[in-house]
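name: query_chain
kind: protein
chains: 1
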Amino acid sequence: MRPRPRARRPARRASARVRADLTRFRLLSEAGARHAAVALSQILGRPLTLDVPWARVLPLEKVADMAGGASRVVCALSLKVYGEARGNLLVLFSREQIPVLLDLLVPRSSPGRNGNPDLHSLDEMERSALMEIGNILACAYLNALSRLLGVSLLPS
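structure:
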């Protein structure tokens, strides 16, 4: 009679692996954010830093909670990611960041700039400027990840 094999603990190994993968993902995200900051700095003609306080892989239904709850107002740009790795990329700006970002691209004295920090009253130029900032950040981020991972990552 053979001895019974010992039961493995796959959950512990899996959770350690997931933690290690998330750590690597956070480091890759920081590298992507540095590339995004450089791209936006070049366009704006001034130094800029971006922080990635955390990186998460979440199911879509958990995003509102992650962003501060359904009642918190944020500005978001959502992109589909195609290529060898597929998914979604969400760029979020808090309500407090919006006037700062707009002042970088569209000075308050510009024609068509209403200067109102209320997200619901942004005019077309202001919305376009925020979408452009989001696109620049997302594309630079994906390009950096693509190079670091050696896979094709294409934004929608």
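note: Strands lie at 74-83, 87-94, 153-155.
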